[in-house]
Amino acid sequence: MTRDAVVVEAVRTPVGRRGGGLSGVHAADLSAHVLTALVERAGIDPVVIDDVVWGCVSQVGDQPSNIGRYAVLAAGWPESIPGTTVNRACGSSQQALDFAAQAVLSGQQDVVVAGGVEVMSRVPLGATGTPYGPSVLRRYDGFSFDQGLSAERIARKWGLSRARLDEYAARSHRRAAAAQDAGAFDGQLVPVHADGVTVRADEGVRRDTSVEVLAGLRPSFAADGVIHARNASQICDGAAALLVTTSDRARELGLTPLVRYRAGVVVGSDPVLMLTGPIPATGEVLRRADLSLAEIGVFEVDEAFAPVPLAWLAETGVNPHRVNPLGGAIALGHPRGASGAVLMTRMIHHMLAGGILYGLQTMCEGGGTANATVVELVA
Prior knowledge:
Peroxisomal Thiolase, Chain A, domain 1; ten-stranded mixed beta sheet; two-stranded antiparallel ribbon; 12 helices; 12 strands; transferase
């Protein structure tokens, strides 16, 4: 029988706002929290796990070296279980899922945990320094590789006005609030107890947000720009984990597959526009999955900045109701190294709740790359 790769469990912490309820938790401990919940909910002994592939972007301060390995040790798992850390910028934990699936599909491993963490309250943006050198600057005419400036360029190229971006941002908050009220996230969330407080829900949702409120905010990157703090993703903290195996091994372990990994790709794109990679990545992953846009029931397109999903929508023509239906990073936050696994966890549970056969997730990434992944409902 041909090997497949299936996700049998997917959990995440609430996403905490900067300085919020998760800000006092070390990244290794926050990671351990979801690892522990993952095996408890699956009902397995962690000894069966062959590897842990963990995404993390800012690998300095509290998140240095191989945080994936220290997460395993913090969880109290057997010392025989290895761990590795992936940095594909904001797509790190989505890439972790791709690597886990590839290891399982190849037969090199049978049970792999994929996920990631970022505690941005403790390791702020820019803490890792400058990743490019003089040769890169010369090649791209001295562009600073500031993602905010790239988002401004995308808005200009696709003719996206400030009002359009703010309308999208307000909608993200409305959708996220409605999802919280409906209990859409309850089955996937692992409450976190820290400093005498229990964080049970995503902290970034602003229920009073409106286009009128957003219109009063100053641009963040250019005096005449359209990008500001609230039509961009929130700086935040979080972790998420998924358990990947084969259908046969799941059966042996008494586990029920939730979704089957259908295809995954990563592409390079213009590093100055930087955040448009999800457009070609979507086409490529659909080709590999042998599916059409019309067959996909839900899309998760990371809301790093509002122009990213809006440009993607303009190019694909997808019905906006199928894109980020529960809100996105503008409302729910973007804990960078964890975001890919957070989005996938949200999408899987949404597919389960709605009986949606196919879901597609895509993530823009610093430096001009993008991941895209298609999963198929099997539960």
